[in-house]
Amino acid sequence: MKTENIPLNLTRTLVVGNCPLGGRHLVGIFRQIARGLNCKIIFAKGGTETSIESYPQDALEKLLKPGTDLTIRVEGSNAKMGLDLLTPLIAATSGKTEAVKRASRTVIVRNELGFHSRPSHLFAMIASSFRSEIILEKDGEKVDGKEMFSGIYMLACGPGAELTIHAVGPDSEEAVSALSSLAENPYLHEISCS
What we know:
Blueprint: E1 8-15, H1 23-37, E2 40-45, E3 48-51, H2 57-63, E4 69-76, H3 79-90, E5 102-108, H4 117-127, E6 133-138, E7 141-144, E8 162-168, H5 172-183
Antiparallel strand pairs: 1-4, 2-3, 2-4, 5-8, 6-7, 6-8
Helix pairs in contact: 1-2, 1-3, 3-5, 4-5
């Protein structure tokens, strides 16, 4: 049975946080998410709307300055997933000293091809955008979730594999939420990382 994708238009307003990767890398990740999920991502600030697909890189970087109030709108059949992936990346926590936070979640890999090279690369890229340490666990084996070849790829996560995502650090809950959504995406193999 084939399910029909229903176009969505979802909006969320948040404050831009400090991201260790910086605006240039975030913009690249956002564009990859938009292409991979076949959705349109629009940032709005002060009544001006900006589509990340057509806006100059340096202007988008300025828009992503920490402390800026920013409204994100995602349009398309994968809008919810897009918004769920973007939110923790944009609202990354500031550099304040905080108690060590931990979060974990066990998910089932839903992608029909499992975590081959493209999904592993995308996962490592998004995991690297968080300040928290990311550990992946499968069948008792633990690896660095920010490393593609010496980490994720080594777990050989095929379709239906049970994967536990652990995060330790100031943005651990956001990291586990975003990475869980990514790992459970049945169309993960279609998302481009170029």
